[in-house]
Amino acid sequence: MRHSLAVLVLNKPGVLARISGLISRRMFNIESIAAGYTEDPNITRITLVVQGDENILYQVVKQLSKLVDVIKIHELAASDSISRELALIKVRAGDPGRRADIVNIVDIFRANVVDVNNETMVIELTGNEEKIDALCSMLREHGIVEMVRTGKICLDRGPGAAKDAPDNHLT
């Protein structure tokens, strides 16, 4: 089972490396990790997706809570949160017929063409993992040259915020 965690940390150099290092040293797999500033410039929010059962989740949270720079750890339930990924996909588009086909596919997925040249197009798509996978599947026949994905980012639905959620630190 996949677990999404919002980890609020002090915005200091090396925090992300310490978190990923701690998890990898314990032999837990990070499926995706995304970090960025929050509404408070002193706090960074790291969205971490880990694979495993409840025991693995317990161990990850327990280990993370030992780090000095970790302020709060909050599990984001799939049913109570909104999650998205961003993908940039470069596709071969040498002839006009191929470009038209690609544009039609892009429109169906509500994606955007963000760069075009004589040989390639770059497509931007925001959505859940399944939507991005489906677009990639459609674009494979045109030839994906290069692709990058952000990994999952999540927010709880409703008026609450991760900083106000009950503390998930396990002792």
UniProtKB/TrEMBL annotation:
Record-annotated ACT domain positions: 4-78
Entry keyword set: Amino-acid biosynthesis, Branched-chain amino acid biosynthesis, Transferase
Keyword Protein biosynthesis attributed: no
Pathway: Amino-acid biosynthesis; L-isoleucine biosynthesis; L-isoleucine from 2-oxobutanoate: step 1/4; Amino-acid biosynthesis; L-valine biosynthesis; L-valine from pyruvate: step 1/4
EC number from the UniProt entry: 2.2.1.6
Group of enzyme by EC: transferase
Similarity annotation: Belongs to the acetolactate synthase small subunit family.
Subunit composition and interactions: Dimer of large and small chains.
Protein name per the record: Acetolactate synthase small subunit
Organism annotation: Desulforamulus profundi
Record lineage: Bacteria, Bacillati, Bacillota, Clostridia, Eubacteriales
